[in-house]
Amino acid sequence: MSKFVLLFCLVWLSQISSFEMQCDSLIYCKGPMMDAILSSVFADAKDYLNRPTRSTPEQIYAAFLRLPNTTAPVLTAFIEEHFAPANEDLLAIVPVDWVADPPFLDKIVDDEFKTFGFAVNRIWLNLTKFFDHSKYCANCYSSIAVPHPFVVAGGIFTEFYYWDSYWIIQGLLACGMKDSARHMILNYLYLVNTIGFIPNGGRVFFLNRSQPPMLTQMVQIYFAHTNDVAFLHDAFPTLVKEYDFWMKYRAVDIQLPSSNNTYVLNRYDVNNTLPRPEAYMDDINGSIGMDLKQKKNYYGQVASACESGMDFSSKWFREKLDFTTISTKDVIPVELNAIMLKNERTLASMATILNDTDTVNLFNERADARASAIEAVFWNESAHQWFDYRFFSSEQFYYITNYVPLWTGEFKGEIAQLIDDLGPFVYDAGVPTSLINSTQQWDFPNAWSPHMWFLIEGLDALGDVTASQVAKKIASRWVSTNYCGWKNTGRMYEKFDVRELGKEGQGGQYPPQAGFGWTNGAVLYYLNKYPDLVAPKCPTL
């Protein structure tokens, strides 16, 4: 990383407060110029937002104020004069550790799946990138500088995204690409140490929110593959720093009517009162008819759903089919608290390796308290599921995230009954995010790699033969639907329809995307874990 880029980061960060960061850029984040451009010129806001500038932000804004009017033709000419093409600062990188035939492919029994794994491995060559800011002035681009290359999701997602990277790293490690995995982790450690947390993605307009905190687990799986104690030692203080961020800014006290106990849990809670730049017109149109106070609340609730990674889902709505009732901050999510519990146990385990007894005790105590809270607040014995705690309603709904606590390895209940109750949610091509067809992409009939992974690994973590067999069966269906999608189209999709093998998912605020980082990572992980899977006969779609 150049000294210039590092200097830029320090200059940029000096302009924002210790945490409650709001991007103040009049080019990329707010103000009349952005309002005018995004409301009239670009159908996709990122066609504008991903453009570096040809001169300083001050010069460009002054030029905007001199425009005779803000009609679309005038603004289009203005953009062409003052902005470079979108993603001009994004370089394609050939990973230094990529090989065409990673050793795990030799273990795959089925020839069709072996060919599939070979093809998916090649996609790393298309998705590995680096932001090069060497020819631009400070604050003249929306991308966030990091010191190492990274793997993007693909499609319209041309920057790094936080929680996506966990499954990308799983796939990289399956392919033996330890250097690439290490580089991505180092980037995130750098962001925690310079910003104080990891933003949603690699753009300045994401600086007011994070995503599910998977960094500790990234370091854990890297350590499992390398046994690099020195790396763990260096990373550990930063992992604690990120944990402290979530406990300081995303914690909430819960007191149940039936108990005198107060439980400390976490939620998604973004301080935001403006439309998201990357989805500007969606937010403007969604808030039509609201007064100013309602708009500000709405924008904060929407941004908080984006922090969850599940943007969007009926999970966050008061009225399941009405987006305008979004109330993310009033939902205490099962999955976030399962991740936090897993992180607490993992930090304790890491501290054991580092011979730090006090820290071992601290995080085990916190994990014990959270495990008790998860059982008291979320667990429903009759349904054999955990359910989100909702401040506005006692109603309980199935979401695949209800089962994420299985992944913590701390379930002590009746396994056979849990598996039996899970059965109706398992479809031919995966397990749906919900049973509510809301037209949102994180609802029925869609399934996604991260949630499929949590469920499969959670079942396998139970240490029960039947549960592990069910886990493998679900993994087989997930790999098969990815395979059929690829075989029919040559593309890897971000989400799939659980009702038919190979059918891409639909819904949400943007068209279906292909690429696709975490999809590829999960598929490679499972081809490596279950090399005896058999490819299906794919339907013609």
Description of the molecule:
This protein is mostly helical. It is built from 19 helices and eleven strands. The protein has helices at residues 3-14, 32-38, 46-49, 57-65, 72-82, 111-122, 124-127, 164-174, 178-195, 215-226, 229-249, 280-286, 292-308, 334-353, 357-377, 415-422, 449-460, 465-489, 517-529; strands at residues 90-92, 128-131, 150-151, 251-255, 262-266, 331-332, 379-380, 385-386, 389-390, 446-448, 495-497. It has a three-stranded antiparallel sheet with strand order 1-2-3. It has a two-stranded antiparallel sheet with strand order 4-5. A two-stranded antiparallel sheet has the order 6-9. Strand 4 and strand 5 (262-266) form a beta hairpin. Helix 6 packs antiparallel against helix 19, helix 8 (164-174) packs parallel to helix 10 (215-226) and helix 18 (465-489) packs across helix 19. The chain starts with a helix and ends in a 12-residue tail after the last helix. Mean pLDDT is 95; it is low at 1-18.
List keywords for this structure.
single chain, about 550 residues, three-stranded antiparallel sheet, two-stranded antiparallel ribbon, 11 strands, about 45% helix, about 5% strand, globular
Blueprint (SSEs and pairs):
Elements: H1 3-14, H2 32-38, H3 46-49, H4 57-65, H5 72-82, E1 90-92, H6 111-122, H7 124-127, E2 128-131, E3 150-151, H8 164-174, H9 178-195, H10 215-226, H11 229-249, E4 251-255, E5 262-266, H12 280-286, H13 292-308, E6 331-332, H14 334-353, H15 357-377, E7 379-380, E8 385-386, E9 389-390, H16 415-422, E10 446-448, H17 449-460, H18 465-489, E11 495-497, H19 517-529
Helix pairs in contact: 6-19, 8-9, 8-10, 8-19, 9-10, 10-11, 11-14, 14-15, 17-18, 18-19
